[in-house]
């Protein structure tokens, strides 16, 4: 997983994991991240139609499939799941 950051921004990378692909723990166009109250990361894997849950050390905990919907419906479903996770 990598993050694009503006050229003039100061940042520190504290964790990297995953790579491009379609197997569990890999990503094809990650577009959103939510962190729950237990510091687990939920990452939208857009082109693989899923959300992947990782612990704070980057270990894969769960894969949540998202059916292949039209983009607007897919965006809404992902938004609602993220909203529920963050409560």
UniProtKB/TrEMBL annotation:
Q: Which InterPro entries does the record cross-reference, listed alphabetically?
A: 6-blade_b-propeller_TolB-like, NHL_repeat, TRIM-NHL_E3_ligases
Q: Which UniProt keywords apply?
A: Repeat
Taken from the record, one Pfam family name reads NHL
Q: Which GO terms describe its biological process?
A: proteasome-mediated ubiquitin-dependent protein catabolic process; protein polyubiquitination
The molecular function GO annotations come to: ubiquitin protein ligase activity; zinc ion binding
Q: Which PROSITE patterns match?
A: NHL
The answer to whether UniProt assigns keyword Repeat to this entry is yes
Keyword Repeat included in the entry's annotation? yes
* Protein name, as recorded: 6-bladed beta-propeller
Q: Which organism is it from?
A: marine sediment metagenome
